[in-house]
Specification:
Elements lengths: L33 E6 L7 H16 L2 E4 L16 H12 L2 E7 L7 H8 L15 E7 L7 H12 L3 E9 L16 H20 L3 H4 L3 H18 L1
Parallel strand pairs: 1-2, 1-3, 3-4, 4-5
Length: 238
């Protein structure tokens, strides 16, 4: 194929020209949207878990199938083989999910080790499969004092690194001990309304993107690399 005028570095046969028709959803979409929720604390009275459970209730009302991963007994990354039952459970849930919610307390101005450990156990690739790529993501945090956005900003960075579609909206709940009753239910407030906003947006974006993520995450650079490797393999056979 002839080179593209003014774009001599591009391989024309590997360049996709996006069209609306190519964004038509594919695959099995008869099931409810599948949302995995992760939280970042092991405390018995964990406000990040309480907020995660509130989010799960809202998502279930919208029609999602939700699963919450319990980080208790998940070993530190690298300390056990990848065949450890908790590691296998987490990775299988990631593959199952179409969207995710990450919620962490803020500790020393950052995400907790519990939260980061879960994310670190999720590989960018498992053979030809990428457990996180193309999933939608909502981020939330709880604060012991005044409102902060350190954690949600860090979670956004991690979500981008994991090749996830992180929605614009987010939730940060200050002085979380005031926002939950003795049963762990969130009290009515503007902060609760914001959680509803975030879950509503996540659900909408998950519906919008599912069945389209394979196309949306298909990259020219990766097609080009595969083509070069295929040529190298043919040369090696000569």
């Amino acid at each position: 194929m002839d080179k593209i005028p003014n774009l001599p570095n591009i391989q024309p046969e590997l360049l996709d020209l996006p069209t609306p028709d190519k964004l038509a959803p594919t695959g099995d979409l008869d099931h409810p949207p599948r949302i995995l929720l992760l939280y970042g604390s092991l405390r018995e009275r964990s406000f990040s878990r309480f907020l995660t459970e509130e989010a799960a209730r809202i998502l279930e009302h919208f029609g999602a199938e939700v699963k919450i991963f319990d980080p208790m007994e998940l070993p530190m990354v690298g300390s056990v083989p990848e065949t450890h039952p908790k590691v296998v459970e987490l990775r299988e849930l990631c593959l199952w999910s179409e969207g995710q919610v990450w919620c962490s307390p803020e500790r020393h101005g950052a995400v907790t080790a519990v939260m980061k450990n879960q994310i670190d156990w999720i590989p960018l690739e498992m053979g030809a499969i990428r457990p996180s790529q193309g999933r939608t993501l909502a981020v939330m945090q709880v604060c012991g004092g005044s409102q902060s956005f350190n954690v949600v900003n860090t979670l956004r960075l991690l979500g981008r690194w994991m090749r996830m579609f992180t929605i614009p909206n987010q939730s940060s709940v200050p002085m979380a001990y005031k926002e939950f009753d003795d049963a762990g239910r969130m009290r009515p407030s503007g902060y609760y309304d914001r959680v509803v906003d975030v879950m509503e947006e996540l659900f909408k974006m998950t519906l919008l993107l599912r069945g389209r993520t394979d196309y949306l995450t298909d990259r020219y650079s990766e097609r080009n690399e595969r083509a070069r490797k295929a040529i190298d393999r043919q040369i090696d056979k000569l």
